[in-house]
Hints:
Elements: H1 17-25, H2 36-48, H3 59-65, H4 89-97, H5 109-121, H6 132-142
Amino acid sequence: MLPRWYYRDLTLGDEGDDVLIVQRKVDAPMTGKYDGETSARVRGVQRKKKLKETGEVDKKTAAALGEKPGSGQTPDWFEGECAPGCSGPCVAQVRILLHQPALPVHFDNTLEDAVRRFQSENRLKVSGIVDKKTAILLADRAI
């Protein structure tokens, strides 16, 4: 069964949200551009799943990568950048997903440090601010 995120074959030079989903699934740097490293990691998945090792994402490779419900989707709790000084549902959810204490309910230095670590570990731009890419990856890791 084809995952919802798949609508085209992906090869070197392609760009888009579907490329970001593949990069997340194969633990490649999330650049949004299908590059050599993404291709190499896709070949690794193809090898492991005993598929033809092309480094490109075709229907069989997309099916092998699979889909989790909500994968690649902007989470409901994300309404815009969540940064130091913010409070509300976004902060509460980020604290839960990063295994931070529930208090305080505002975005403090401790939470900023945790966000920076998460971004660094996941090859995202390290800013300490929960932007859309960070929010999607946080939500996908929780599924």
